[in-house]
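Encode chain A's predicted structure.
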Amino acid sequence: MFQAGIPNYRSSDPYYYQYFVCHMCKRKMKVKRSKSLSPEPSSSNEYKRPRIANSGDSDNDYLECRLLNLSDDVLLNIMKFLHPQDLMALSLCCQRLEQVTRDRTLWSNCVDFRTAPTLLEDLEKYVKFFRPMTTRLRIRGNLQSNKHRGLSQSFFSAIRATCQLKELTMEEYDIDADKIQITDFPKMIEKLSLKGCRMHHLQTDKSYFFRMDFHMPNLTCLILSKCNWFYPHSLMVISKMVKLKELRLDSCYRLGECVAYASLATRFGFKSLEILDLRDTGLGDSEICCFSSTKTLTHLYLECPRSPRPVYCYEHEPRPYRPPQQHSTDPRLRVFEDQNILEVNNDRLLIDERRIVPYFDFERCLVSDRAICALGSYVCDRTILNNIQDMIFVEVDRRVVNNPNLKELVVRNYPRVTNQSLVHLAANAPSLEYLDVTGTTVTREGVEMFKSQKPGVTILSSFDET
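Encoded structure for chain A:
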């Protein structure tokens, strides 16, 4: 048997068929490239690299290692480790890299720009890379730079039309409340973070989050850390979020002396709240006691402010000076959009041409044993039912369960928290797993007592060995 290109071996040769099959497979076998996920195949004839000519001397053959010599699949695997800013720079190199960087696999799920501050002009350029599969967007600005302008209405319109976002994180940006309302944000997001953002032109008689419960029905996490513009009356609006599970208000210095709002918000709202962060705020015992009625609460973080800090709210336009006593007759500062009375102590407001400086009493914002003992379950005082012939009938012990699911509690740097809080938590916090009382006045004996009664609870204190 003889065929062209195949040596004439006898059919009786045991290696004949093995060689024949291998030779025919090599002739038919071709290197196939998997289907590209790019909008257009980047391996079209226009961008195909030239075939390396065969050289007579095989010992001198070599292949230059260039980026464009790699296949699209290899380039995609490399680009998955790059930041969005790097992908943008690569897209400007050539048409092939521009097509590969548009691949939907690079812009699906989470897109995080927080490695460096991003200008608004760059954000508008990045929108063209987003896909409907982009579900999480994280961006960061720079309030200290004059080059960073505030977010625009066109940017919000673009991401609403392009992406199906479930998480939107915006840090350290300027937001003009006259131009961007809460209804301009994506409607179906589940997590919203405005950490460190600065708000301008806020209305005095309306919360910025008004009707947020109708616009964002799926919101489960709201982060407003370091938002100095957050006023206590916004608690009423946020408490109406049915699915809200996590609320972070740490370093919101205006959040103080809001007993009325906290009481109404916790009594009629916060039905699903589990994580509450109130560190570095001006809240005291009265406000913390209000949150004891939140049955679903599992994590509570409290930390005393390092010092009484004045809060500055800069405006674009100067405002004339008005004496504090005139505020009591100003109807705009008395009633809000939901007909709630504004709770402001006018004697503590000083207004000048450029800023509002509310000073709160530092001693008042100290949390004590009173607030901690309101958490967990406790036994109410028994009342006398009847008194007949020197026989007193009293009702049985009635245990009220507050925060039965509390698992993690942080109470740091409060000098008025003593061993009494440890005794209460040891007896009335059945679900507690983690406790931090660093910087309080609990004693070493109190900590040892708590550990003996609650061996399964991790407790941190000032007496821990370092």
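Residues 107-167+186-191 form one domain.
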